[in-house]
Amino acid sequence: MYFINKATQNRHRIVLKEIDGRYPAQNLDGLADAERLGLQKFFEMKSKTDRGEKIKTLSIRKMYELFIDEEKKRISDVPRGGITAARWRLLKSQGIHYIEYVTNKEWGLGKTDRSAIHLMDINHLDGYFTYRRKTTNKSDKKGRPLPRKQTIKAELFNAHRMYELIGVRKRYINKNQLPIIPKEQLRISTRETQDIRRSMFDVNEYVALERAAREWYIKGISRFHPKTGELFGFEKYKRDGINVKKGDLNYKKPIRRSVIFGNGKSPRALAQIAHRKMVYYAMRITMETGIRIGTLANLRWSNIAKIPKRAKRDEKIYKMIRVQPEQGKKGEYYEIPAPIGEFLTEIKKVSKFTNPDDLIFTNQMNGTKWSERIWHEGLVDMMIEANLADRNKESVNKTMIVKSGKQCSWYNFRHTFITWRLNAGMSIQEVSTYCNTSYQYIMSNYYHADLMDSKMIDNLELGRISKTFNKET
After folding, report:
1. In this structure, are strands 249-254 and 234-236 parallel, antiparallel, or unpaired?
2. φ/ψ of residue 390, rounded to 5
3. Which CATH superfamily does the domain covering 203-220+260-446 fall into?
4. What is the residue extent of each domain of the chain?
5. Cα(194)–Cα(210) distance, integer angstroms
6. How far is CA 173 from CA 119, 162, 177, 441, in A?
7. 274-333, pLDDT tens digit by residue?
């Protein structure tokens, strides 16, 4: 049936069916049923138009469900071919925050999620910032209120996109009915952005991390209980000494024990040891290449090739990584020469999956790609063993509290590589090509110039003659 709204000249196409979902039969009896249903629907819609009501309506809850279904169709493993499953879960969570804002009676709008979207005021998002801060009522380790402005801003843009993708495109509302995103409270300063971005490791931190991983982590030995995170204790002095007595605790020598499953000989235990060694060499590879952790996780043995002869480097030490478009973030092919031959050889010694089509970092229990948990817990264990972080005992999952206050993840190694290469004199154009990123992005996100460094000050004095400097430069 077609119904034309004479006031707006809009035509609506309606499929006639019974309350229980049955369609009229394709016979004379069905024709009578169709006429009955058509008259019912006509008078229902005529009454709505006479009262000035909108014929085609959509509730907030239904809009959210349609939006999530549409976004789920975009999930793809191909770079720039859609969104990841993790991104979809984030969008789903952001949508729930918006619905809770609509229904919250204390700080939100106090409406029902069955409210029609065309009846929502275009300025109804003005109170969202206050709602999120008041209902969260938490601060980070530096005392800054949560959630951060960047988080709230992303949630607001997602809510606006729901209205645009479902409401406007499916003609439930017009463009001039889209909600307006407030800007006054969401202005993000450069200082706020820099305070929470990922940081690089300094030399002492990386040396401590590498040493702890090499000497203890890859052997499955730790100072901490794997479940409680508590110290096993400290060794005791075996004889009297200066200011110490026999039997006193030696706080310089913590007790270390095996944290590997069972007696260390079961398939699960052997897989744990193999994974620990592979995590360690993954760290070494990222520090020699600056490769993105997502790209590293997707590499296969077929991506490793001999370094060309024109490079004039030892083929046993240097290898070339050929990153395929589908393996990288930017969807581009690029090559990385790096001294990682020794690390790859060690990985092959412990891995059961070394065929050309096998992933380099493969779960030794089932042959699948490493999960996020293996990557995350590996970094956490190494950081804690190196005394760079403490176990977060309030968290259900294995997480850490970094002692320096830095935001720490596997991307810190890429960040460190880029900064160290630039400080060593490598040009920014070479670094950007090597790391498959733009030099503008490097300057805004990665590079940290230490202006107090003596080398930096020497460069500042180039070409100057001054009694203050007491030398000719």
Report:
1. antiparallel
2. -115, 150
3. Intergrase catalytic core (1.10.443.10)
4. 2-50, 60-196, 203-220+260-446
5. 27
6. 9, 12, 6, 38
7. 999 999 999 999 999 999 999 999 999 999 999 999 999 999 999 999 999 888 888 889
